[in-house]
Design goal:
Strand content: 15-25%
Order of helices and strands: HEEEEEEEEEEEEEE
Protein name: Dioxygenase
Shape: globular
Oligomer: single chain
Largest sheet: 5 strands, mixed
Helix content: under 10%
Number of strands: 14
GO molecular function: dioxygenase activity
Family: Belongs to the intradiol ring-cleavage dioxygenase family.
InterPro entries: CBM5/12, CBM_sf_5/12, Intradiol_dOase_C, Intradiol_dOase_core, Intradiol_RC_Dioxygenase, TAT_signal
Radius of gyration: 19 Å
Keywords: Dioxygenase, Hydrolase, Oxidoreductase
Bound molecules: fe (ii) ion
């Protein structure tokens, strides 16, 4: 199945003219990313050859006036939260918890990694990321969970996804869908894109602010993208050589019922919380801050 998402739901794409600055917050980011991030490319000369002949060559793309476009949007002073985009017609709740998306059809290996930040550029631990994408032929699995999966950021806000480069389908450039949610916060639904794909210029949903930084990685490619969620944070003390601390735990809302933290729930489980009944959409281990009213990606109210 391969049909369009609704381009009319989106605002026109716009470039991100803001170069990453070296600030206290970007220093925080650098400290967090040490030892985790994939190699990045920052110039148009660093073109990446693709093994898949269906795919475009991935390159960094020129910005206005031929200047290199800023690489992966970095979390720095004055940076805006990651923009949202349409969910499209192919989201399915209940994806497995995994960092590896698989399915038939082959494809160019791809890893996507990055950090989930809040507005003060502090990493967010235990943020939920739910990815879904087309296979190498541009088709979504609507009867199972091929190329679908969710995961949580680690204590330093990091995530890592192993998958393939998605195929093209009519009306769309290459993209990966994702929902990102910090504990007890609203869901950000958005999409990630690849630089240098010719269809970027004809896809009305595409937005360069959502471009990953892409580099060759063995026989495949590696994408990097950091999310900035619209979540207020205490900016904390000035930077030191030590990594920043995790955000403070959230206080659970008034509850009561059969739901419990630190319990393994499976899709279809039914609990009560705060006088309401909820059905589990995705298998997970519960925790304080992930009470059913706070995580609609995990619990559906009856
Ligand atoms: Fe899509």
């Amino acid at each position: 199945m391969s049909t369009h998402e609704d381009p009319a739901a989106q605002s026109p794409p716009s470039a991100d003219p803001t170069p990453p600055g070296i600030t206290r917050k970007s220093l925080l980011r650098a400290a967090v990313a040490t030892g985790f991030a994939v190699p990045l490319i920052g110039t148009a000369a660093a073109a990446v050859a693709m093994a898949d002949d269906r795919s475009a060559k991935f390159t960094t793309v020129p910005g206005p006036a031929g200047a290199p476009l800023a690489v992966t949007p970095a979390c720095h002073d004055g940076d805006a939260p990651t923009i949202d985009q349409t969910e499209g017609p192919y989201f399915e709740p209940g994806s497995p918890q995994t960092t590896v998306l698989t399915g038939p059809g082959g494809g160019t290996p791809l890893t996507v990694s990055g950090v989930v930040y809040g507005l003060a550029c502090q990493p967010i631990a235990n943020a939920l990321l739910d990815f879904w994408q087309a296979d190498n032929g541009g088709n979504y699995d609507m009867s199972g969970y091929n190329f679908r999966g969710h995961q949580y950021t680690d204590s330093q806000g990091r995530f890592s996804l192993t998958t393939i480069v998605p195929g093209l389908y009519p009306g769309r450039t290459k993209h990966i869908h994702v929902k990102v949610q910090a504990p007890n916060q609203p869901i950000l639904t958005t999409q990630l894109y690849f630089p240098g794909v010719p269809q970027n210029s004809t896809d009305t949903i595409y937005d360069p602010r959502l471009l990953m930084t892409v580099t060759q990685h063995g026989s495949g490619v590696a994408g990097a993208f950091d999310f900035v969620l619209n979540v207020q944070q205490d900016p904390g003390p000035p930077p030191t050589s030590s990594p920043p601390s995790s955000p403070p735990p959230t206080s659970p809302p008034p509850g009561g019922g059969t739901w419990q933290p630190d319990h393994t729930y499976a899709a279809g489980d039914v609990v009560t919380y705060g006088g309401a009944t909820y059905t589990c959409l995705q298998g997970h281990t519960s925790m304080v801050g992930w009470e059913p009213p706070n995580v609609p990606a995990l619990w559906q109210r009856q």
